[in-house]
Amino acid sequence: MSKKECSICHCADSATNPVYSKKGILICKNCFSNEEVERIFLRNDNIYEEEDNILNFNNVSPKDLKTALDEYVIGQDKAKKLLSVAVYNHYKRISQEEAVEDDVEIFKSNILLLGPTGSGKTLMAQTFARFLDVPIAISDATSLTQAGYVGEDVENIITRLYQAADYDIKRTQRGIIFIDEIDKIARVSENRSITRDVSGEGVQQALLKIIEGSVVNISPQGGRKHPHQEFVQIDTQNILFICGGAFDGLNDIIKNRLGKNVLGFNSEKKTINNDENYFHLVDSSDLMNYGMIPELIGRLHIIATLDEINQEAMLNILLKPKNSLIKQYQKIFALDNVELEFEEAALRLIAQKAIDRKTGARALRAIMEGLMIDLMFDIKDYSGYKIVITKDFVLNKKQPMLVKRRKKKII
Predict the structure, then answer these.
(1) Radius of gyration over every alpha carbon of the chain, rounded to an integer in angstroms
(2) Considering only CA atoms, which of 148, 243, 263 is closest in space to residue 199?
């Protein structure tokens, strides 16, 4: 697979000269720093049409999208492949809807991500937005309520996207909205209550219209709507909605369904491993039993499941991504002329500690901050040294191994 190439100088994407997607074209860092190119680019001459503010999908494939994900998200290959195809089809549909004139209308497909906390759901959505150069708004479903009740109106998530797009309506209408903790607005039970569930089923009902596609009046500055204020109309038809949640307890619902799935008098009941994760066998009936309303499930056409992170994957998360934690701390220390090195045994212990906390990859930063805080407090005392983080240091925070370096700058 060929790398991205700059549309101006045709140089390949590299670490020293990355190629970005800007307004429908690919442009490298060197070209964008050129004053003449930048002047033309910002002026929006005929070279770049104003409408082309998403990546040119004639030169992109689902494999390119997955490659972009691989740089930041470790593992989850099945989910990444499914998401790459879904996002590619969504934006290919947008880019071609005006170019092809026929009677066939392609409807959009929204995405539901199921997986334990810290497995990479939010990071995937952010990576897509960065690669495609589209605005993204991340909202927490737990803060949403029906209009008129204490809490946040559902329309405010559109306002967040509008603000993230620098108040550009066209960019807003091609953005991505990620709604986290979608499982927290499930109905308490399948039976409808005589009282209003304004932060559960009520929010699910309110989400139906904007997820499927409609024109929504929003307040540009956010907050509650007032009769005399000016509104901005946003069409959500081409906004990609990605909903994510951990869905604690869903695994038991799936196992219960699989265990009862017996046909005939002499059939044997299926053997269910209580320790195994059956998320990949989820269907709409399981989600309805969990408390999601059928109308919302019907609008989240693509369901991708993410696996729990094991120690090997956690170790790779520490080391392999472009902006991995280890690389970040090494850069921070290098700014003060201190080299930072980690022994493999120390890294494996950090990974295991993160798994024990059961909060996924998010636990890594908390653990690393706790380990590094004293070293960063005395950072000036270590100038000119190499600090080696050992297993004993991770276990007992004993003095790390120090190696004297020659008097020269690291960076």
Answers:
(1) 25
(2) 148
Rounded to an integer, what distance in angstroms lies between the CA atom of residue 249 and that of residue 278? Answer: 11
What pairs with residue 180 in β-bridges? 140
> What residues in the chain have per-residue pLDDT under 70?
1-4, 20-25, 32-58, 97-104, 146-151, 187-199, 221-229, 260-275, 397-398, 405-411
CA–CA separation, 158 vs 225, rounded Å?
Answer: 13
3-state secondary structure of 256: helix
Predicted confidence (pLDDT) per residue in 358-378, tens digit: 888 888 999 999 899 989 998
Which SS3 state, helix, strand or coil, does residue 327 take? helix
Nearest CA to 28 out of 59, 45, 5, 60 is that of 5
- Count of C-beta atoms within a 10 Å radius of residue 62: 18
Beta bridge mates, 401: 388
pTM of the model: 0.72
Q: How far is CA 63 from CA 18, 21, 67, 209, in A?
A: 19, 16, 6, 32
Question: CA-to-CA distance for 159 and 224, rounded, in angstroms?
Answer: 11
Enumerate the CATH 1.10.8.60 domain ranges in the chain, comma separated: 311-404
| Residue 269: C-alpha distances to residues 38, 255, 265, 272, 285 (Å) | 67, 12, 11, 9, 20
Q: If you ran DSSP here, which 8-state letter would residue 111 be given? A: E
Would you state the pLDDT for residue 194?
A: 44
Question: Which residue in this structure is represented by tokens 């999601």?
Answer: 292
β strands within 96-147, DSSP E = 111-114, 136-140
CATH of segment(s) 311-404: 1.10.8.60
Does the domain made of 58-305 have the CATH classification 3.40.50.720? no
Identity of the residue numbered 254 = I
Q: How far is it, in rounded angstroms, from Cα 367 to Cα 258?
A: 38
